[in-house]
TrEMBL record:
<dbReference type="GO" id="GO:0005764">
    <property type="term" value="C:lysosome"/>
</dbReference>
<dbReference type="GO" id="GO:0046872">
    <property type="term" value="F:metal ion binding"/>
</dbReference>
<comment type="subunit">
    <text>Homodimer. The monomeric form is inactive while the homodimer is active.</text>
</comment>
<dbReference type="GO" id="GO:0043171">
    <property type="term" value="P:peptide catabolic process"/>
</dbReference>
<keyword id="KW-0333">Golgi apparatus</keyword>
<keyword id="KW-0964">Secreted</keyword>
<keyword id="KW-0732">Signal</keyword>
<dbReference type="GO" id="GO:0004180">
    <property type="term" value="F:carboxypeptidase activity"/>
</dbReference>
<dbReference type="Pfam" id="PF04389">
    <property type="entry name" value="Peptidase_M28"/>
</dbReference>
<keyword id="KW-0865">Zymogen</keyword>
<keyword id="KW-0645">Protease</keyword>
<dbReference type="InterPro" id="IPR039866">
    <property type="entry name" value="CPQ"/>
</dbReference>
<protein>
    <recommendedName>
        <fullName>Carboxypeptidase Q</fullName>
    </recommendedName>
</protein>
<dbReference type="Pfam" id="PF02225">
    <property type="entry name" value="PA"/>
</dbReference>
<keyword id="KW-0121">Carboxypeptidase</keyword>
<dbReference type="GO" id="GO:0070573">
    <property type="term" value="F:metallodipeptidase activity"/>
</dbReference>
<dbReference type="GO" id="GO:0005794">
    <property type="term" value="C:Golgi apparatus"/>
</dbReference>
Length: 476
């Protein structure tokens, strides 16, 4: 499960997998009989309701409401790592909130999850001078077994360099100072770096944070151990310290580091919950349009960007539909996933439990790449008629300048649905700075913008409602 998650995350953030729905594609819609006959007239009728949704959200009366709600939530609970009381308390709070907001069928669905703990951890350079290091142990990493490790470091820029210098590794702490290319390419050092170093006899791995920009802050994330390879501590260090180590070693100066960590994975599992609510469809209640984000986060920052914003625009989309008295024909369902950061665990458990219902899902929508200024959405479906339908809906997003449709298979939690044949959609935003804050202390409400959140909510509500309100489901 964890390896699959790492691969999916690499795909999700590699924009080369996307293809913009072009004007040439749009021309084909003119000759698509099913689109022209069945869907376009309905969409024209729905355009007034979509306009009503957008105007309601960005009106002076309601502007900033999503920001204020999210701020209240993340300020109250802070980071919400899977397996912690903070997450479970926040789920209880959210369930009560959804009921008060008038959602239907509000409930939690239990999910068995691993319980990894971040204990006391510290590191320092003791030669050629003394310097405290800012670190974050990686998820699933072991600790130092009650000992303080002290050893010379060995800096490498790639797995290839490590392989070439394998005979130098034994007894050392390996430092990965890779050049950041993209998250999808560079994340492999975080996920597999410890095991790659351990097979040559390293006693720990210090991995440069996977980010294109740093202000001396480490970024955490998951680590995955290979089978039959000794588990050694896997720790994220700052870009600045990785480069410092590189400069020292380039000058042929020996660097010695001390490392202590009480991080551990408990033998006993924990129970968490996916948070579910609905607006039951008036005509086709068994057909579902899903909107989602994940409620858990890492244990640093506030989890506002990753993925508080995505979770909040998902459940608030249903609230807006309720407030406006709109009646979708299909069920609008919001699911706020648990344990996404530990390997998409909540989403895959949901898909397993609801496997027999997958044929009735029209679309699975997910927001987990930041709620910055929206530019549009991505869509995985290959059917031209369905692409034309969504393209037509996106044209209605002109008031918020978010009309782009990209054909893409990107997704993380929704991959559990894609594997069952359900088309998936991701919010597409101007998220160039997403990895500046990702999995770090910098993921706070300061990253969020009131107007951008309103626009994201307007898009998310409009698309999900329009697809739930059509007479016919879009074809797969």
């Amino acid at each position: 499960m964890l390896l699959r998650y790492i691969i999916l995350m690499a795909i999700m953030v590699n924009v080369s997998f996307q293809r913009i729905f072009s004007p040439q594609d749009a021309l084909k819609c003119g000759s698509d009989r099913q689109f022209q006959t069945h869907f376009k007239p309905q969409l024209k009728q729905l355009s007034s309701e979509v306009r009503q949704i957008i105007e309601h959200i960005i009106s002076p009366t309601n502007a900033g409401a999503t920001y204020e709600s999210l701020a209240y939530f993340v300020d109250k609970f802070g980071p919400r790592m899977a397996g912690t009381k903070q997450l479970e308390d926040s789920i209880d709070f959210m369930l009560d909130w959804l009921k008060k907001d008038g959602h239907d069928n509000v409930h939690g669905e239990n999910v068995t999850i691993p319980k990894w703990n971040r204990g006391t951890e510290w590191a320092m350079m003791v030669k050629p001078r003394v310097k405290n290091l800012s670190i974050l142990g990686l998820g699933y990493s072991v600790g130092t077994n009650g000992k303080t490790l002290e050893a010379p470091i060995m800096v490498v820029k790639s797995f290839d360099e490590l392989d070439r210098r394998a005979n130098e590794v034994k007894g050392k702490i390996v430092v990965y100072n890779f050049d950041f290319v993209s998250y999808g390419i560079s994340v492999r050092y975080r996920s597999k770096g410890a095991s790659h170093a351990a097979k040559y006899g390293a006693i720990a791995a210090l991995i440069r944070s996977v980010t294109p920009f740093s202000i001396n802050s480490p970024h955490t994330g998951t680590n995955s151990y290979d089978v039959n390879v000794t588990k050694i501590p896997a720790v994220s260090i700052t870009v600045e310290d990785a480069q410092l180590f590189q400069r020292f070693t380039d000058r042929k100066e020996e660097v010695i580091v001390r490392l202590y960590s009480e991080n551990n994975l408990e033998k006993e599992k924990a129970i968490s919950r996916n948070t579910v609510s609905e607006i039951i469809g008036s005509k086709y209640p068994n057909q579902v349009v899903l909107v989602s984000g994940h409620l858990d986060s890492w244990d640093v920052g506030q989890g506002a960007m990753d993925d508080g914003g995505g979770a909040f625009i998902s459940w608030r989309a249903l609230s807006v539909v309720k407030q406006l008295g709109l009646k979708p024909k299909r069920t609008l369902r919001s699911v706020l996933w648990t344990a996404e950061e530990f390997g998409l665990i909540g989403a895959y458990e949901y898909a397993r439990r609801h496997k027999n219902e997958m044929k009735d899902f029209v679309l699975a929508m997910e927001s987990d790449i930041g709620t910055f200024a929206p530019v549009g959405i991505t869509y995985s479906g290959t059917n031209l008629t369905s692409q034309c339908v969504i393209h037509e809906i996106m044209k209605m997003m002109a008031p918020i300048n978010a009309t782009r449709l990209s054909i893409s298979t990107e997704g993380s939690d929704t991959e559990a649905f894609a594997e069952n044949g359900v088309p998936i959609t991701s919010l597409d935003t101007a998220n160039e700075k997403y990895f500046y804050f990702h999995h770090s202390q910098g993921d706070t409400m300061t990253v969020e913008n009131r107007d951008d959140l309103d626009k994201c909510l307007a898009l998310w509500t409009s698309v999900s409602y329009a697809l739930a309100a059509l007479d016919l489901p879009i074809p797969w």
